[in-house]
Amino acid sequence: MIGFSILFQRILGLNNNELTTDEDSFYQYKRLHNEFKIFQKTYSRNYSSYDEINKRFIAFSLNMYLLEQRLDQERKQGIEGQTIWGVTEFFDWTEDEIAKLLIPHNYNEQIRMRQLKKIIKVETKQGYVRPKQWDWREKGVVTHVKNQLNCGSCWAFSVVGMVETMHAIHNGTLVRLSEQQLIDCDSAENGCEGGFRPYALRYIRDKGLLSENAYPYRGNDGKCQLPSGPIDPTQRVFIDEWRSLPSNEDQIADWIATNGPVTFGMNATKSMYHYKGGIFSPSPEECNYESLGSHSMEVIGYGVNDKEIPYWILKNSWGSGYGINGGYLHMRRGVNSCGLTREVYSALIKK
Hints:
Pept_his_AS, Cathepsin B, Chain A, 10 helices
């Protein structure tokens, strides 16, 4: 029978000198096992076999180890509490499973070579003063956070969410639109394997989007199920055009406050899956070397916390249980976190 020290090291892949005694490892294993049971109950996990339990326990153990390492590092740096970390629904996911939610880095690099930039100049009226904070939810023009499920369709959700709000701002009606239509029917995209947001915006300009009720989300690739024949414009939402915004966070904030939300892409770090609140401030090292892929979200506003640290309000597509306020994330503003300003787009709709 192997000692718990060896067992625990195998679970977490630790070096021998990180756990010193069988007694230490026994209590750590017991604590970890209890945390895992709480996790299973909290997130209604019912695993189908012992092999599945083992697989999920190993993934959970690794995430707990990474979480404790992060908390310990922040304590040593004196920045504890700026970001709230904790156990999330992703703690029993493997890295391969998490990566399926994202767009592969090589996909973005290949597709970016074909990108035609249409950069819009952000203009403001004379005497304009940017509000200290802005949140389109307060105007009643943002739909509830959705869930992309186990599909790399963040590109579709970030674009559709932005168009939903833009349509509500200009037409006075908030309609939940169909991401699944983009996944199935935009032949320029790769569905659950990734997509290019300018192509999605071009599709919405040319073809329009049905409501989510008319074309509900499934979370997998499928055959386009649009009715044949002429397009009925009264049944779809269109945009007039789309543009790329300058890579300047002040100008992006001006656009959001005076026009509407934007969609952006960033390198998704492992720590995003541990986020529970506060301001998410990933380091350049995390963004460059610990990213599992690219992730697109919608920026629906901005603000500052009680310490005057500026942040963006990001609407995610990982369900209402993620992050704060029903599926949102606050990300540090003013430092181009994880390349946030690199590819920012918005829609143009005539009043």
